[in-house]
Design a protein that fits this description.
Rossmann fold, 15 helices, alpha/beta, 12 strands, six-stranded parallel sheet, about 350 residues, single chain, 2 domains, about 15% strand
Length: about 350
């Protein structure tokens, strides 16, 4: 089985949720005795302008998988997906936010149309939640019998850090704070960060710490003593930030899964989030999560303050579970079977 792991070599993807998914899945599959995994990395491509470079994947990725001796190919993202896999083909579709929020995302060009066409042509499609499965049916016309819901999990590196403050010595952090984690270069329009930063700046509750590499626009959200940016952090530092925080605040307006809340719970930290997208599906059973109405930033901060000091229980799911369910998808792909 060939896993196209090149998203781990792309800085823009490696540092986000797609990179986390690909790295954790690759590691879990390599530990499994059920399949023989070949990771495709550093594949040679002819030189081409950036805007058309991805087009080579439709011609060459399937060839590379054949040369690697694979009998099945898995693309862990629509990025670098192929229209000509030359073998049974699995694609992971993390969300359809660009098609649901076209006013925020300029992803309607040829490159993205070809990506979604590759998803339509795939033998099977893995999605991280029932919400994304519904979106794929409505927006891409996918037959639900070809779609497999495989929830993700927190990476093994996320656990309560007993030496949290020692790990964070390079940062000047308040004794108590709320935490937000995500992309800040630039901030994702659907993540609700400007409204959250304004509410904290104008309020008198705990200050807010923003974790993530930031551009100039994101740095403009900082407010002395109220909103602090700590920049890009390592996984060890991120686990420490989760552990040290009173709560994670997550004002996203749409999510295909929502890894930061799952990671926070894994570190023993409660979560206040908007009740949107897949979050009720993924987090709804946790007693240490409060979901509030979308757009109610004040209610979100009040929920976070109510949760402060609570020792959260991690969700039970692990990447071994994810790998086992993914392997079952591979078997159905090779056998041509439908979802159970």
């Amino acid at each position: 089985m060939a896993l196209d792991a090149r998203v781990l070599d792309a800085p823009g993807l490696r540092a986000g949720g797609i990179g986390r998914y690909a790295a954790c899945l690759e590691d879990a599959l390599l530990r499994s005795a059920a399949i023989e995994l070949v990771s495709l990395r550093e594949l040679r491509r002819p030189p081409a302008p950036e805007r058309v470079r991805e087009g080579w994947e439709h011609l060459l990725l399937g060839r590379d998988a054949v040369r690697a001796g694979a009998e099945l190919l898995h693309s862990p993202s629509v990025d670098l997906a192929t229209l000509r896999p030359r073998m049974p083909y699995v694609v992971t579709l993390h969300d359809l936010v660009p098609l649901k929020h076209r006013d925020h995302y300029l992803r309607t060009g040829l490159k993205h149309r070809l990506r979604y066409r590759a998803v339509r042509r795939a033998t099977r499609v893995i999605v991280p939640s029932r919400v994304v499965a519904d979106d794929a049916e409505k927006l891409l016309g996918l037959d639900r019998a070809r779609v497999d819901v495989v929830h993700e999990a927190a990476a093994p590196s996320f656990a309560p850090a007993h030496d949290a403050r020692e790990r964070l010595e390079r940062m000047t952090l308040p004794d108590r704070f709320l935490l937000w984690v995500g992309k800040l270069d630039p901030p994702d329009a659907r993540k609700g960060l400007p409204a959250l930063a304004r509410a904290v700046t104008d309020g008198d509750g705990p200050p807010l710490v923003l974790a993530g590499s930031a551009n100039e626009h994101a740095r403009s959200l900082a407010a002395p003593g109220r909103v602090l940016l700590c920049g890009r952090v390592s996984d060890a530092e991120l686990a420490a930030l989760y552990t040290a925080a009173d709560a994670l605040v997550f004002p996203s307006q749409d999510e295909g899964f929502g890894l930061p809340p799952v990671e926070a719970l894994a570190c023993g930290t409660p979560v206040a989030a908007f009740a949107t997208g897949a979050l009720p599906e993924v987090l709804g059973d946790s007693p240490h999560v409060e979901l509030v109405e979308i757009g109610d930033t004040g209610g979100l901060l009040e929920a976070a303050e109510r949760l402060a000091g609570v020792k959260a229980t991690p969700l039970p799911r692990t990447w071994r579970d994810v790998a086992q369910e993914t392997e079952a998808v591979y078997l159905r792909t090779q056998g041509g079977g439908s979802s159970p």
